[in-house]
Amino acid sequence: MSLKQLLADLLSLLSTSTCDHFLKYLLFIFLLLPTLSFAQADLEFGIEDDDLKIGGDIFNDFNEDLESNQVLEDERFYRYGRFFSFQIGAGLTTFDGNRGEAYENDPPTFGLGFNYFLDFQSSYGLGLEISKHHIFLDEPVNFGQPNRIGLVDVTMLRVYFSYRYYIDTANLGTAITYSNPYFVGRLEYWYTTNKFRDQSQLDNDNGGGLGFGTGFGLEFPVKLRESYINVEFLFHSVNFHDKFTQNYRPVPTNPSGFGYEDLTGNVWTTMVAYVFSW
Question: What's 169's domain CATH number?
Fold first, then answer.
């Protein structure tokens, strides 16, 4: 086939109606592609511009929600919460270990306390408590032998700094919500005085020691935000000055006789207080 004949057949094909429609379709596609490309580019640049704007932080809405919730919580506390409380109470102080065996308790224990509330669930407190006990040594011991010591009056004064965490009872039962349960921790200083009542020639045995207390409590409202009945149960670990004393051991001539190897032991307190709040 000659070149002239080939060109003639190609021109004949291009002149048909089918080819004409096909060429129009291709032309439409070529014109549409640039428009789509520019639209996509504008959209991408628009998103980037929004992200780069000042204040366009993706966490901005989340932070605003947190701040709004905190403001609402503060407003609720100022309207319905307590700011300060003062309490006066009485209770019982007991011991375990050797000190528990040696001591006879002379209730009640008296206490005063002051609390400052940070919010509905947290408060700091200051306070003091005093309790009395006695030891009766009716037989000779290592201290004061060969005579018996007799009655020893013991006075324990402690001051403390405390932190309370009130449990969120919003989703609990009515009885639990009404009791306002909390956990408490205390840093304490105990000062002990031993007076030898039957041995006037002996000086008092005085000394202090650091300790900590932990436990839980309940507060039952008498009048909301104004007055409450507080019940508190605490365990104390104290480094008493006479913790490892040898004074009350049995006399050397009778090692298995009457006496106490030392005065080790922990402290347990139960206190009931009337609380004034404002």
Answer: 2.40.160.20
Find out whether 131 and 148 touch, Cβ atoms under 8 Å: no
pTM: 0.74
Residue 189, both tokens: 């200083």
Q: Let me know how many helices (H) and strands (E) the chain has, helices first.
A: 5, 8
pLDDT digits (tens, 9 = 90+) for 156-213: 999 999 999 999 887 877 778 889 999 999 999 999 999 999 998 899 999 999 999 9
Are 162 and 184 spatial neighbours (Cβ–Cβ below 8 Å)?
yes
Q: Which two tokens stand for residue 209?
A: 């020691």
- Domain co-membership, 45 together with 138: no
- Range(s) of the domain holding residue 45: 3-56
**Domain shared by 204 and 98, yes or no:** yes
Report the SS3 class of residue 17. helix
Q: Which long-range contacts (CB under 8 A, 24 or more apart) does 182-185 make?
A: 182/216, 182/217, 182/218, 182/219, 183/214, 183/215, 183/216, 184/213, 184/214, 184/215, 184/216, 184/217, 184/232, 184/234, 185/212, 185/213, 185/214
Instruction: Classify residue 67: in a domain, yes or no.
Output: no
Q: Which ranges constitute the DSSP H helices of 53-109?
A: 60-80, 97-102
The answer to whether 211 and 191 have CB atoms below 8 angstroms apart is: no
> Tell me, what's the pLDDT at 43?
45
Token representation of residue 105: 């308790």
The SS3 call for residue 130 is: strand
Cβ distance 274 to 110 under 8 Å? no
Question: Is the separation of the CB atoms in 234 and 214 below 8 Å?
Answer: yes
